[in-house]
Amino acid sequence: MNQPFTATYLLDELNKEATMGAPGLEAQREVRVIDMQNFVQRKTEIADAIWAAATDIGFFQLKNHGIPLQDIQAAFERAEQFFALPQEIKARYPLNRNAGWESKAQIRPSTGTPDQKESWQLTRPRMAGLWPEEEILPGFKQETLAFEHQCWALGMQVLSCFALKLGFSEDFFTTAHDPASPGYQSTLRMLHYYPVPLNTQSWRAGAHTDFDCLTLLFQRAGQGGLQVCPGKEHQSQAWTPIEPHDDVITCNIGDMLMRWSDDLLPSNFHRVRNPRPGEYNGPRYSLAFFCQANEDVVIQGPQGKYPPVSAKDYLAQRVSANFSGKY
Ligand SMILES: O=C(O)CCC(=O)C(=O)O
Ligand SMILES: [Fe+2]
């Protein structure tokens, strides 16, 4: 790992990502926790707090966010059940365009090595043949769809705060991520990082920024390893560990929102490191919801800092740079 990986991409963010594979340093940074209680009444105050955290520190966490803890725990249990299925069953749901299952297929431009994980992704319009059947995992489909919707609704609340601060109409991003559209491409991802023998030289997930507008990341207490480096400080290569807590959701700004805000909202680099000697080194599960604008939506900020690109073309370029040219 960590050998310099040289490639040239058409997108600036991919060229930047290719420079981020080194171990770097550790740095403590403030992790601001935003209280989402009484969102409607407190929206202006919440929007100010989210904006300040996103622009000063680059990442933040949500508490009292309205997704019941028992629903999150049930979603983790479904992920464990899915990943415990025999390999030959999971292989019946192969990844295609951010939907379905893959194992060790994601090669980050930063590291040039495969992430030590498997994942299954739900992208609503693309799920034909990719659901585990009722007799294999009863209730999985219905409950996972319901959880995806809860994530979408919370993601849209947060994005409406960014819309407010950017001077866009407050429903701008909700329209851009309309689940009723056939071009809907927001994704719920279940992740399972394999147990790692101690002193193994690899990354559970190599350094990257997300492709989307906003990511909601759910982690489990005791299963650490996430490290974050704010986009505006990426040259420092100084990484802040994020301690997992069951009652908060960690949020990352992704590259779609960076583009849409003409860089006012920098996307965050993050990665998942291996356990160190003495740390828990068993399996690690996480859940991520990626708010990815619908295929036909054109991403461009008011200042036109980046050329216009459809969210479909943008995602296709980012996914294929991570999956050996496949989309
Ligand atoms: O599992 C984690 O904590 C991070 C996952 C992640 O960054 C991703 O899938 O984009
Ligand atoms: Fe990520």
Automatic annotation (TrEMBL):
Entry keywords, A to Z = Iron, Metal-binding, Oxidoreductase
Fetch the SUPFAM superfamilies from UniProt.
Clavaminate synthase-like
Q: Does the keyword Iron apply?
A: yes
Fe2OG dioxygenase domain spans which residues?
A: 183-293
Example GO molecular function term?
Answer: metal ion binding
The family line of this record is: Belongs to the iron/ascorbate-dependent oxidoreductase family.
The record's listing under PANTHER family reads: OXIDOREDUCTASE, 2OG-FE II OXYGENASE FAMILY PROTEIN, UPF0676 PROTEIN C1494.01
Q: What is this protein called?
A: 2OG-Fe(II) oxygenase
